[in-house]
Amino acid sequence: MIRRGCSLGAIAATVLATGCDAAPAAPPAPLRLGATAHFAQGWPERLWPAIGAVRAMTVREALGWRRVETRRGQYQFTPQNSAHVTRLCAMKLPVVLVIDPRNPLYDSGATANSDQAQAAFGTFVANVADHFRNCLAAIEVGNEINGASAMDGLAASDRARSHTRLMKAVWQATKPHHARVALLGGSVNTVGTGFLEALFAQGLLSWVDGIAVHPYRRTPEGLDWELAELRSAMARHGPVRPIWATEFGMAAPDQAEAADYLLRMAVLLSASGVREAQWYALADDPSFPTMGLVGANAEPKPAAATFRMLSAGLLGRGPAIRRSTGEPALYRYRFGGDREVLWGAPRSLSLPSGAVVRDSTGRAMQGPVRVGPSPIIVESPQEAELGPGEVLADSLYDYATPVWAYSATGVARDRVGLSAVHSKFATTLGFQRLGALAVNPLGMVLPAGRERVAAAMQYSVRKAARIIAEACLAPKPSGTGAAKFSVTFNSEPGQFEQVPPSGLHMAREIEASAGDTISFRARASGGPAVIAYRYRIVLAGTPAAQETLRCN
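Above: the chain's sequence. Below: its structure in token form.
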């Protein structure tokens, strides 16, 4: 972020952001959790104690090249331009330092692109590493460089080539004397694998220690698949470098929601092999007034308790290891020998004797406990016992798994399978020939055209049961057309129903046998459509069947 603006394209990509095909994760290691601060931009003294209060393991901050090098080749680190970094070093906190490669002394103040400007920037970074040699964890070059204003001048005309050349200049100037300082390139808003792959093709992976991503998204679910897609892209071009999530967070007026979100994100980042992550932000900021762990006056919010519990306890037990239970619609992770984190579709849970259950803020919970969308932490050396599954398939929790078969129908009258499609801001399920078609865990972009293409998700019944096929759809204003929807059982013809502006909720009860199929299909009408959606297959007569399905 560092005062980021989010373009319409970035917002749309955040709504539609996840991937499909898995790649091997990095070797397991504990996640080190930090926070982004803006003391460089004038945050008040009263916010400094929040760093210790939340137990931040690292702090991400910024340093201005133009403020330190005001004459060519002369570097003045003064209280006015770098006291905040000096203070963090005195606190013995590892610092992730973001440096924007722009200085009015070079290339007329535009992003360093000429050989002279890039060499000057490389020398500056080496001097920064010299000056703060005992506390720098990493230097992140640039910030969200897939955004419209993040690179300018000639560099913006070929971002992949310019950024790769810049990282080479930084590496050659800095690495021989500062092997322990990680040099981070890429720095993308969301997980922009399509954008990053162009950099990998230019050779970026030879000149970085890690790839910086800012995985902003509406829901954590699907992040693990998207990070796997990013690793697959690296493997196609060179060494697979560590992924650093140097910003992640959410704008959350509902602070309880922020606490749940933080815990789920931290678990998925850890399980995906990410070793370094910084929450955005340490405190509420006028530009982003609901994203802080603490308020503008340093008052702690629920997410601060979650952060402290993670950094001071849970993450120190080792990386999150997903339990392969084979159960649909379930997220279940083990930390060490005596902690579990669970969430997903509703179901009962039997606890071992003496087990303690906590919510996302670490508060002990009393009475019967069920698995649900809010994560719970079970403290016990023995595993909790899951009750019978009530939800057989869920489009959110089972996204991009074999539980669902994804396809596009109406493509030259054929059905084609969907696969990962990478773009500047996201990886989605789609079909390359239909560039506008995109499906993620929460949203769809449906293309218009003569072929009347429908995005289809099909569930195959495993065992005879009375089930309910349930769907919720809500149109989004970014689409110019309407959406139509149908749900079909086996080979019956589909009758499409228009989704009204207020949204559509439907539930169909079916007596199903093993091998039967239920297909959900959505297509555009009158122009491209953008919708929020949620599908699920639930057992009739269960508590889960009484709960209202929501999709926005």
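Residues 330-389 form a domain with the Immunoglobulin-like fold (CATH 2.60.40).
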